[in-house]
Structures are given as structure tokens and as C-alpha cells.
Predict the structure.
Amino acid sequence: MQRPLAVVTGASSGIGEALALRLGSAGYDLLLVARREALLTELSARIVREHPEVRADVFALDLCTDDAAQKLLDRAPTASVLVNNAGFGKVGEALSIENGVYEQMIALNVAALTQLTLTFARRMVERGGGTILNVGSTSGFQPIPFQAVYAATKAYVMSFSEALSYELRGKGVSVLGLYPGPTKTGFSEIAGAQEHAKKHARVFMSADAVAALAMDQIKTGKESVVAGKLNAVAATLSQLGPRKAARRVAAAIFKPR
Ligand SMILES: NC(=O)c1ccc[n+]([C@@H]2O[C@H](COP(=O)([O-])OP(=O)(O)OC[C@H]3O[C@@H](n4cnc5c(N)ncnc54)[C@H](OP(=O)(O)O)[C@@H]3O)[C@@H](O)[C@H]2O)c1
């Protein structure tokens, strides 16, 4: 029997790496995507060592370059799972963030994710089925001062995924949204939030715990999952009260000291 193929973006570290390991264990062949080829190659070797039956190919690609989505589809036209996980954030006053960072963030978190989702969804509909898992964030549940653009990109991921999921009902293709909260990965360092991460270390989940929830979600097809009970409660509370109150709380948490 042919093994199912999963494409994982941002597989060179963090949640993507952990999810690739779990997908390999669960019987998927893999196309591992990110820019740091050496890390992808190492991961591929580890997966094949642990599961010699798995084919784990590597595709070093900057997802913000032209035609990235089409290039990826050309490499994996039979993919039954696409995980749009690559993404990054930046913490600080919006006006102090250096030029180009926000363009890059929107290009990756919003534009590339959209293009990949639509490109693969079209093919999956033609083929009669598939699952697309978009990794958003609990940051997308409310506006977050000092994370203004990142939180907005993740609000987009949620809105886009939910709307497209509705459009694709009855077409065999599921569009799922996974919303992790603070997770121990390379994210905090890239976001310039190491101090914040150190201070709040006790609420951070492991990348593998988030990946385990993602695996369940892929299996069950649950449309929307907030990773972890604490994050789920916080996400729900942020929706119940006035939006301005949620913004005030978020500002207090993320205000640079
Ligand atoms: N960690 C958290 O606290 C947290 C919380 C909520 C949501 N999330 C979301 O979870 C997802 C995964 O992040 P993570 O926490 O696992 O962080 P991470 O360890 O920094 O992983 C980010 C991944 O994205 C890849 N990537 C970045 N820019 C790319 C580009 N232009 N083209 C291709 N790949 C690119 C990176 O690989 P290369 O550098 O090799 O390209 C890396 O594999 C992100 O969407 C993030 O927003 C994270």
C-alpha cells in the first residue's frame, strides 16, 4: 500500500521538527521544508534511522521567494497533509522594529501561508481529499501591543483558516487551525523575547507536546485546537470580555521593561 505523504514547513526546528518526527512514526513519508538545509538533512537522517521504511526528503527553500508554493507542489503533488508551520514573530514597540522585518513577517506568516494553502487545496480537491494544518497562535485571539504585527498575522491565520474550511465543506479537504501558546522552541530568541520567556518559563509547553496535539488534530479533523488547557482558558477569556480589556492585559504582559 502507498504511504501517505506529509509536507511540513518550518521543519528545521521547534514545533515543525517535533511534528515531523511524530508524522514519521505514524507512517507518513515526509517532505521537510525550511531554509537551513543542514538541520533538515540531520532530521531526515534521524527519522530514517528510527523508521527505515520512511522516505524523508529535504527541500531547502525560503518560502518568501517567488513561486515557492508552486515549487513545493511540484515536489509533492500527491501530498495528503500540508502543515503550514513556518513563521516568526518580533516583540517590541512597533515603531522601533527595524525596516524590513514586518514585510518579511507578513510575507511568511500571511502571504506564503495563504499561497501554500490555496495551491495545495486546489490539488487536494482534484485528488479527492487532504488535510491542511495551519499553525496560528493564541496571540491571534486579541490585539497585542508590543507584538502588534505578529498578533495581527496570527489573527489572519485564524480568520482565513476558518473561512476556507467552511468553503471546502463537502469537498473532502479539511483546513485546520492549531493555536499554540508559549512553546519552548527557537521562537523566543528570534522574537527578541528571551527575557520574557525566562520569566514565564513555567507556562511554556514543549514542542513535542504541541506536536502530539497536532497529530491528534490531523487524525480527528478537529477544525480548531488551542494547545494546552491553560492556553485554552486564556483564549476563551480573551473572547468573553471586552476587547479593550483583553488588549490591556496583553499589553501588561508584553510591555518591555
Ligand atoms: N514558540 C511559540 O511560543 C509559539 C507560540 C504560538 C505559535 N507559534 C508558531 O509556531 C510556528 C513554529 O514556530 P516555532 O515556535 O517552532 O519556532 P522556530 O523553532 O523558530 O521554528 C520556525 C521555523 O520556521 C522556519 N522558517 C522561518 N522563516 C522561513 C522562511 N522564510 N522560509 C522557510 N522556513 C522558514 C524556520 O526554519 P529556517 O530558519 O531553517 O528557515 C524554522 O524551522 C510559527 O508559525 C510560530 O508563529 C509559536
